[in-house]
DNA sequence: CTGAAAGCGCTTACAG
DNA sequence: CTGAAAGCGCTTACAG
């Protein structure tokens, strides 16, 4: 019933457990060729699979990387995880995944469990307000790091550890600049929850850039970070601006801080008889793959999400230093902000 | 440097390690209230975090569930993983994730590693041809199961273990029936690779249902299981059928076995000046959330993906039996197959 | 209720 | 090059 043990292999090969361990699990001290062969043969015949738990206990390293995301079904996070996975694979590490549904209790719990599992590193993806990292979590991280654990965050403030920072602020500023250059002058924003730093950074980057050009938004509304959040925000925006088909003023250019919110907004406006980009223009952020064939095609900003995920685990595995990196966004102008 | 140990806690509380273990890590034998309090206090003050590796070794159960998917960035799989995550959380298990990029070597490797980590169960999501599960993998699974490991597959054939089977075949048949009922008579199929069972089942379910109505497809083409696969297949299909705007025969109704392929197809046709649904109709499969606001809205089939993922881990955790379950699809008729 | 001790399956100085 | 032995941090019969 019990799995084949190193002891079993050693017995069959007629060597000591130590020797079997050395040939099977890569030590610098390589035993004689004949011995090594006997051990390997025995292992194969018995179907020996090393017990990673026991190895971890003996080695004080588990080869595990804990990954915490808000929602694995969100394309933003699943792309990050894809990149993280790939990087973990080349480093021969395993990924422990937690999808928290944005529940901070669950998040804290997941981190605790990762620490209990003695993950070599923990990567926290997702975003929250400055200083929002609660005391408990921070205390746990401190101890974790004191015991040799590595922490890397993606897109959130943290006093310690590594970080890879998507440039939400400056990419949004570039988007604003590009839209102004394209001839837009009247702007509005559909922002996200004030508690989410990504949402705030994107909004600020956009508004600040406009300000530098002597422009400002005519109205701002906010909603949940979802399709429906964009939908209802867009209705409020339409009401506030008294938008209707064929206004003489020309289309206002709306920045929805997320592609999915932009999609919800377009749906809302369509129901109101408003056409994009003729009656209202809209830009999003994220460049979600399944949205690339949307009609009208959506002006947006692409972030190198997979690369961000990969870099995060690379930083986590690089025990040298607590590096901080930035990941630039790329503005993509498409039909949804095309001026007639 | 080293983490706080159960021994440390016991010392500080003035009890034996055994007692500390019993109060901290839930045993039925509950020590006296005073003692328990002392231990808990000591643990808190020291910041004790149980070493899951050591517990696993001593208990012969890791609380780990291995999850293998083809591509975590694919909405199909990320939805499954989301459901699996949620179910794992209620069962207080941790998820080990592997995204294989459809590379069978990587897949085999991931399974081996999961076994090495002594995962309590392994869930394999993704699809392959009948009997394609290679010998090595199968042999490993056999040993794994003999040692008490549980295996559950999603949407693929496996002689042993549990399974949850998305009803690709019958849901596709229902789709065909619905389209015929809506008045369609001329059909075509954009299928996937013959090596992917999901693709084959969907195609067969559709074609067989047509057959039962005395109908058959006018042409079938295949492509990769991607947006670009759908795009190029759609071009071939258009050429084969000599599709052009405003054909007198009316629109042919094309079943693309995946939403993303359908999206690629629509893009290809748009470039050719063909309009959906006026010149050509199209239905997909999957009901991808970010595509729900697509124009034209896409007729498709929804699978309860999260539920499928959740059921898979529930089955994996239910050591009673190797259950097999079916998950029905739901046909959703939308604009892309609307007849004028 | 509580503790001493063996055992889970490995790795790794330490001797030979 | 090879082996005996201690140790990694827990759990759990087995005694008391």
From TrEMBL, chains A, B:
Q: Which organism is it from?
A: [Mycobacterium] wendilense
InterPro entries, per the entry:
HTH_LacI, LacI/GalR-like_sensor, Lambda_DNA-bd_dom_sf, Peripla_BP_I
- Keywords attached to this entry: DNA-binding, Transcription, Transcription regulation
What name is this protein filed under? LacI family DNA-binding transcriptional regulator
- What is the superkingdom listed in this entry's lineage? Bacteria
Which intervals hold domain HTH lacI-type?
A: 4-59
Q: Which PANTHER family match?
A: LACI-RELATED TRANSCRIPTIONAL REPRESSOR, LACTOSE OPERON REPRESSOR
Recorded GO terms, molecular function?
DNA binding
A Pfam family hit: Peripla_BP_3
């Amino acid at each position: 019933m019990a799995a084949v043990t190193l002891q079993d292999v050693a017995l069959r090969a007629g060597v000591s457990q130590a020797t079997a361990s050395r040939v099977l699990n890569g030590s610098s001290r390589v035993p004689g060729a004949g011995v090594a062969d006997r051990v390997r043969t025995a292992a194969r015949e018995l179907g020996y699979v090393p017990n990673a738990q026991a190895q971890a206990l003996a080695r004080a390293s588990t080869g595990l990387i804990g990954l915490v995301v808000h929602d694995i079904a969100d394309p933003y996070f699943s792309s990050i995880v894809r990149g993280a996975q790939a990087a973990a694979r080349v480093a021969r590490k395993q990924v422990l995944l937690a999808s928290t549904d944005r529940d901070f209790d669950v998040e804290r719990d997941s981190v605790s469990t990762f620490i209990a599992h003695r993950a070599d590193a923990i990567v926290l993806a997702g975003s929250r307000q400055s200083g929002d990292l609660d005391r408990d979590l921070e205390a746990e991280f401190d101890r974790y790091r004191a015991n040799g654990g590595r922490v890397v965050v993606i897109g959130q403030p943290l006093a310690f550890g590594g970080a890879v920072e998507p440039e939400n602020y400056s990419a949004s500023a570039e988007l604003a600049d590009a839209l102004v250059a394209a001839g837009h002058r009247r702007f509005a924003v559909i922002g996200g929850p004030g508690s989410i730093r990504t949402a705030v950074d994107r909004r600020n980057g956009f508004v600040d850039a406009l300000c530098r050009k002597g422009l400002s938004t005519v109205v701002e509304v906010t909603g949940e970070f979802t399709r429906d959040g964009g939908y209802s925000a867009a209705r409020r925006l339409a009401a506030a601006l008294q938008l209707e088909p064929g206004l003489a003023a020309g289309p206002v250019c709306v920045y929805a801080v997320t592609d999915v919110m932009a999609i919800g907004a377009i749906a809302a406006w369509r129901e109101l008889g408003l056409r994009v980009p003729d009656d209202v223009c809209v830009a999003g952020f994220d460049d979600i793959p399944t949205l690339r064939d949307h009609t009208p095609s959506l002006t947006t900003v692409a972030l190198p999400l997979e690369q961000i995920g990969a870099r995060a685990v690379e930083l986590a595995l690089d025990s040298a230093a607590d590096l901080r990196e930035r990941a630039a966004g790329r503005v993509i102008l498409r039909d949804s902000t095309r001026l007639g």
